[in-house]
Amino acid sequence: MKSVIIKLPTVEAVRTFVDVVRKYDADIDLSSGRYIVDAKSIMGIFSLDLINPIKLTAHMDNTDALFEEIKDFIIDTAE
């Protein structure tokens, strides 16, 4: 499991992001405050406050390929 901070500033960014994460079989979550949603759910993502950065948590052993594909959205690492 590994986490990063991402930013999804536009509707098109959300669509592109969801297309990428849906290719992975692992559970991938997004959290904002006390809310956690499935990163593969467009409706779930739009229920979050996208004005602020959100935390992505990938529940998988090797996140290198995923993080490479979403590198344009990553703004920081998470602790």
Description:
The protein is of the alpha+beta class. Helices cover 28% and strands 32% of the residues. The protein has helices at 11-21, 42-46, 64-69, and strands at 2-6, 27-32, 35-38, 54-59, 74-77. A five-stranded antiparallel beta sheet has the order 3-2-4-1-5, with no helix packed on it. β2 and β3 (35-38) form a beta hairpin. 20% of the residues are buried. The mean pLDDT is 95.
In angstroms, what separates the terminal alpha carbons?
A: 11 Å
What ranges have pLDDT less than 50 throughout 5 or more consecutive residues?
none
CA gyration radius, whole angstroms: 11 Å
Q: DSSP helix count?
A: 3
Largest sheet: 5 strands, antiparallel
Order of strands across the biggest sheet?
Answer: 3-2-4-1-5
Mean pLDDT: 95
Task: Tell me the overall shape.
Answer: globular
What structural class results from the helix and strand content? alpha+beta
Helix content: 25-40%
Query: Approximately what portion of the residues adopt beta-strand conformation?
Result: 25-35%
Q: How many E strands?
A: 5
What order do the SSEs take from the amino end to the carboxyl end, as H and E?
Answer: EHEEHEHE
